[in-house]
Design goal:
With 232 residues, the chain is of the alpha/beta class. Helices cover 34% and strands 28% of the residues. The protein has helices at residues 15-23, 63-78, 88-96, 174-183, 185-191, 195-204, 206-224, and strands at 2-7, 27-32, 45-50, 83-86, 100-112, 115-116, 127-136, 142-147, 150-156, 163-166.
């Protein structure tokens, strides 16, 4: 059984997260979020992973693809496939379960600590942040972590299989973060952060972040009750 990974066609960088999933023996099947098949057309999966995006889930121009992704989330959960979402993926997950998302007052950028009530599924970090949007969790969800900016982690078990979403970026590598800084200068400028300092932070946190991400993935898989191949 595969792990279905939903990502933008031009940005399939699952970093530390997909690295850990592959190391555990999970077979990753990448799905372009602009051409998502219906759930019935997919092979059974151990897990559905929703990666981040430069898009905003609440923007009208992405409505069709977001609605399709939300439908895939609900169908997967009802069929018993757990879901994991990161940043944009967490926003889509929240919307699929009855929450919403919106543009924040200012960007949240850099390495930030999270106020948490669950140090296993939402360790305090610091974790990489690079976003301008906020998710509002579904009413029935359990929020595990927050920053001044908004919710950072939630779990939900309302549709059968469990789901977890993180607003922060456990997956990001220094190389990817540096690219984000260069490609989205407006977000960096609005945050008031120094681009060079952000890249230095990424390098300084590289080793710790990788270990923390792998540990977080392991914890999430236990919570989601994802069965691993015997060779793992």
């Amino acid at each position: 059984m595969r792990t279905h990974v939903v990502a933008d066609e031009t940005d399939r960088e699952g970093g530390h997260v997909t690295e850990r999933l592959a190391a555990l023996g999970l077979d990753l099947q990448w799905l372009d979020r602009d051409e998502l098949p219906a759930h019935a057309e997919l092979e059974p999966a151990r897990l559905l992973l929703l990666l981040g995006s430069q898009r905003s889930a609440h923007e009208p121009r992405w409505q069709n693809s977001v609605t399709t992704e939300e439908s895939l989330v609900r169908a997967s959960l009802r069929a018993g496939t757990p879901v994991m979402g990161i940043c944009f993926g967490a926003q889509v997950l929240a919307r699929a379960l009855g929450g919403t998302s919106y543009r924040g007052d200012e960007p949240e950028v850099g390495w930030k600590r999270v106020d948490t009530i669950d140090g296993v599924l939402c360790p305090e970090g610091p974790w990489a942040q690079f976003h301008r949007d906020v998710f509002a969790p579904p009413q029935q969800a359990r929020v595990l972590g927050t920053t001044w900016y908004g919710p950072q982690c939630f779990t939900d078990e309302s549709l059968g299989a469990p789901a977890i979403g993180w607003q922060f970026h456990p997956e990001v590598t220094p190389q990817t973060y540096a690219r984000w800084v260069d490609d989205d200068a407006d977000t960096v400028r609005l945050s008031g952060a120094d681009p060079t300092l952000l890249k230095r932070q990424a390098l300084a946190n590289a080793g710790r972040s990788r270990v923390a991400a792998h540990t977080l993935v392991d914890a999430a898989l236990r919570y989601l009750e994802v069965s691993l191949p015997e060779r793992a």
